[in-house]
Amino acid sequence: MKILVVGAGAVGGYFGARLVQAGRDVDFLVRPARAELLRDRGLVLRGVDGGVEEVPVSAVTADGLGAGYDLVVLAVKSYGFEAALKDVAPAVGPDTVVLPFLNGMRHIDALVERFGADRVYGGVAMVMTRLEADGAIVEVGRMGRLIYGPLSDSPVAAPADVHAALDAGSYSATLTRAPLQELWDKWVFLATLGACTCLMRAPIGAVNSAPGGQEFTSGMFAEAIAVATAAGYPPGRDARDRADAIIADTTATTTTSMYWDLTQGNPVEADQIVGDLVARGRELGVPTPLFSLAYTALSAYAAGRA
Ligand SMILES: NC(=O)C1=CN([C@@H]2O[C@H](COP(=O)(O)OP(=O)(O)OC[C@H]3O[C@@H](n4cnc5c(N)ncnc54)[C@H](OP(=O)(O)O)[C@@H]3O)[C@@H](O)[C@H]2O)C=CC1
Ligand SMILES: CC(C)(CO)C(=O)C(=O)O
């Protein structure tokens, strides 16, 4: 399978490099500044144990992008999604699978509308990586997992073939029949963790050990779970156990990519990760006062940087 990874950042760069190392045929669609860095040094990965890897990669920019890809992996931030969709258009043929790894859900509707459900897979990435100012991708915690599956019963490419391409051996790769449930489970988890840590400006263990902290985290999970349930995707036992474990943890230094962006002064994915949950709650008649507060805070931050 010929693979195009769109965005060589924390997620696309990390998993894309692993695919290259496993011998897959991978190009990266990047913007000019990133292309120059990649041509100079390749993808630079700094591991959680301090080890550095330089992985030579093939980088293309939008003006030189052609057809012929079997699988397009989207790994851009939500605020870059619309532009990336335009840039990637020449690479998506009638039999090309489009697999996004963005957090949240809104991009799924946009992809189905643009390409039709048969070409779209749902994808969840679990990884703790950050794109640093020097272009290196730094692993800040051990967690490498991809979960993906077709959205329709008649996908343009056999799930087994997509799985064979993505199962690079160096991270956990799971083919699922229920990608939308996986996306909702991840959203409940990530939106809660992201909103709690961003609003409180602290890792989740510090939030939970502050006065009223566990009640706050628990209240946020309850809101997210209520929205997911009303939307028809109630979290299963594993997802609920994971939520309970997070609420109980008073020592974890875990944060999220949104917290990283906030504390670095970068744009944040507030609309996609938090605002969309509030909007869906409103449509479904589920009150989300804590998420609404977080959304106001994150929107004020975004307005302050504009
Ligand atoms: N980081 C993490 O730990 C995790 C993140 N996620 C989710 O994955 C998604 C991607 O996040 P992440 O990898 O962290 O983001 P990053 O900002 O690290 O990387 C995104 C990359 O996309 C590139 N990009 C944006 N637009 C285009 C375009 N039109 N063409 C080519 N490249 C483009 C950016 O390029 P440039 O360098 O030129 O700006 C950047 O390098 C988000 O939705 C995030 O929530 C999911 C799981 C974990
Ligand atoms: C779940 C987590 C924290 C790592 O995959 C994440 O998705 C993020 O930081 O955006």
UniProtKB/TrEMBL annotation:
EC number(s) on file: 1.1.1.169
Keywords: NADP, Oxidoreductase, Pantothenate biosynthesis
InterPro entries: 6-PGluconate_DH-like_C_sf, 6PGD_dom2, ApbA, KPA_reductase, KPR-Related, KPR_N, NAD(P)-bd_dom_sf
Ketopantoate reductase N-terminal domain residues: 3-151
Pathway annotation: Cofactor biosynthesis; (R)-pantothenate biosynthesis; (R)-pantoate from 3-methyl-2-oxobutanoate: step 2/2
Enzyme class: oxidoreductase
Top-level taxonomic group: Bacteria
Residue span(s) of domain Ketopantoate reductase C-terminal: 181-301
Catalytic activity as recorded in UniProt: (R)-pantoate + NADP(+) = 2-dehydropantoate + NADPH + H(+)
Keyword NADP: yes
Pfam families, per database record: ApbA, ApbA_C
SUPFAM superfamilies in alphabetical order: 6-phosphogluconate dehydrogenase C-terminal domain-like, NAD(P)-binding Rossmann-fold domains
Protein task: Catalyzes the NADPH-dependent reduction of ketopantoate into pantoic acid.
Family: Belongs to the ketopantoate reductase family.
Name of the protein in question: 2-dehydropantoate 2-reductase
